[in-house]
Design goal:
This protein has eight helices and twelve strands. It is α/β, with parallel strands linked by helices and 226 residues long.
C-alpha cells in the first residue's frame, strides 16, 4: 500500500508542487493548510511522514512539531524560508528528523523523504497493534476489537480489515485489495472483494468507523459521522 505523507504549508502553490512530485513517486499525499488542520489530519490519517513548514500564521511549525512529539515518533521533515541556524537547531531539538531551507528542488524533497523513511523503517519494529477510533486490530494475535469486545472474523475478513486500518482515509481499489489480501489480480474476480466488504460491514456495526463505497473506484475506511 502507498505510504502516506502529510504536507503542511499555508502556501498552496508550494504544497501542490511538492505533492505532485511525491505522488509521481507513488506516495499518497494529504494536505493541511495550518497547524490546527495538521494536527486534526494527522490524528485521522496517521501518515508515515510529515513535511512541516515552520512559518505559518497562528500555530507555527515548531508548535505543531512539539504537539506531534507528545504522542508520536512519526518522522518530521521541517521546511523554512529562513536560513538562520537557530531555526534548524530549534526544530531538531523539538524532535524533527531533517530540515530543508526554501527554495529547494522538489526532487531533493522526494529524495529526503525516501531517505528518512528508509532509515526509520530499518530501525523500527513492525507495528502489530493498530487503532482507529474505537476499533483496534492486533496483527500478531490476529484479533480485532471494538471498545474491547472481540470481533469474530473469518481469515480473509481479518486480512481485509488490516488493509483498511493500515490505510485509514485512503481510497483502495478493488484490484489493490485483491492483490494485498488474496494475493492475485484478476479483473473479473473483484466481486469477492464486494462480498467480503459486505460481511465485514455487518460486523463493524458498533465501531465508530465505517467502510465507505467509492463508486467506480473501491472503498476507504472513514470515521463514522457523529
Amino acid at each position: 500500500m502507498a505510504q502516506k505523507i502529510l504536507l503542511v504549508d499555508d502556501e498552496a502553490n508550494i504544497r501542490d508542487l511538492n505533492a505532485m512530485y511525491l505522488e509521481k513517486e507513488g506516495f499518497a499525499v494529504e494536505h493541511a493548510t495550518n497547524g490546527q488542520d495538521a494536527l486534526a489530519r494527522f490524528e485521522q490519517g496517521q501518515p508515515q511522514l510529515v513535511v512541516l513548514d515552520v512559518m505559518m500564521p497562528g500555530m507555527d511549525g515548531f508548535e505543531v512539531c512539539r504537539e506531534l512529539r507528545r504522542e508520536s515518533d512519526v518522522p518530521i521533515l521541517m521546511l523554512t524560508a529562513r536560513s538562520e541556524d537557530v531555526d534548524k537547531i530549534v526544530g531538531l531539538e523539538l524532535g524533527a528528523d531533517d530540515y530543508m531551507t526554501k527554495p529547494f528542488n522538489p526532487r531533493e524533497l522526494v529524495a529526503r523523504v525516501k531517505r528518512i523513511l528508509h532509515r526509520v523503517e530499518g530501525g523500527r519494529k513492525p507495528q502489530n497493534a493498530i487503532s482507529v477510533s474505537n476499533l483496534s486490530v492486533d496483527k500478531a494475535r490476529r484479533e480485532a476489537r471494538v471498545d474491547g469486545d472481540e470481533l469474530t472474523l473469518r481469515t480473509k475478513e481479518f486480512d481485509l480489515l488490516v488493509a483498511f486500518v493500515e490505510n485509514p482515509g485512503i481510497a483502495l481499489t478493488r484490484d489493490q485489495l485483491l492483490g494485498s489480501v488474496w494475493g492475485y489480480d484478476f479483473a473479473g474476480e473483484t466481486r469477492t472483494v464486494d462480498v467480503h466488504v459486505q460481511h465485514l460491514r455487518s460486523k463493524l456495526n458498533n465501531a465508530k468507523v465505517q467502510i465507505e463505497t467509492l463508486r467506480g473506484v473501491g472503498y476507504k475506511l472513514i470515521e463514522a459521522p457523529a
